[in-house]
């Protein structure tokens, strides 16, 4: 493993942690929409942070892959997540809570799974694919 690989993995872990926290914040502010006049503003700001964190996750996954020479699978996961985030934003703007809310729950669960997988020592010790 090169010296650049751990730094890339640290960035990937941080991006995933930020994304997971942003999604948790969105869940909290979604509940606040029902009880507070400030809920809408906070949920709206949180949606921008969540989308930005999804883009940051893609960047971090690409950098970790290119620097570390490992599997491109995290790039695919991050790209898929950005597509889900795009759908989530569109559903929120269109005010379709019957799809927006369940998709938010799925996204939070997937983000936790990706974070746990990235933090797993077994994942970090997996040998890089050689071409």
Short description:
The protein has 131 residues and is mainly alpha-helical.
What is the topological layout?
Layout: H1 4-35, H2 39-68, H3 73-93, H4 97-119, H5 121-125
Q: Given the structure, what is the number of helices?
A: 5
Helix fraction by DSSP (H/I, runs of at least 4): over 70%
The total beta strand count reads 0
Oligomer: single chain
Rounded to the nearest angstrom, the radius of gyration is 16 Å
Instruction: Kindly report how far apart the N and C termini lie.
Output: 16 Å
What kind of sheet is the major sheet? none
Q: Which parts are unreliable, with pLDDT below 50 for 5 consecutive residues or more? A: 1-5
Structural class, from helix and strand content?
mainly alpha
Average pLDDT figure: 87
Approximate strand percentage: under 5%
Quick one: overall form?
A: elongated
H/E element sequence: HHHHH
Question: What does it look like?
Answer:
With 131 residues, the chain is an all-alpha fold. It is built from 5 helices and no strands. The protein is elongated and about 45 Å long. The two termini are 16 Å apart. The model is unreliable at 1-5 (pLDDT under 50).
């Amino acid at each position: 493993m090169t010296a650049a690989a751990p730094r890339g993995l640290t960035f990937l872990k941080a991006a995933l942690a930020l994304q997971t926290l942003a999604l948790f914040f969105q869940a909290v502010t979604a509940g606040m929409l029902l009880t507070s006049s400030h809920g809408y503003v906070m949920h709206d700001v949180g949606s921008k942070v969540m989308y930005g964190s999804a883009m940051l996750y893609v960047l971090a996954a690409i950098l970790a892959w290119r620097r570390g020479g490992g599997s491109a699978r995290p790039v695919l996961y991050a790209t898929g997540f950005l597509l889900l985030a795009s759908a989530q934003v569109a559903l929120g703007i269109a005010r379709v809570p019957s799809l927006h809310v369940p998709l938010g729950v799925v996204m939070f669960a997937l983000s936790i799974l990706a974070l746990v997988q990235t933090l797993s020592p077994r994942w970090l010790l997996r040998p890089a694919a050689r071409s």
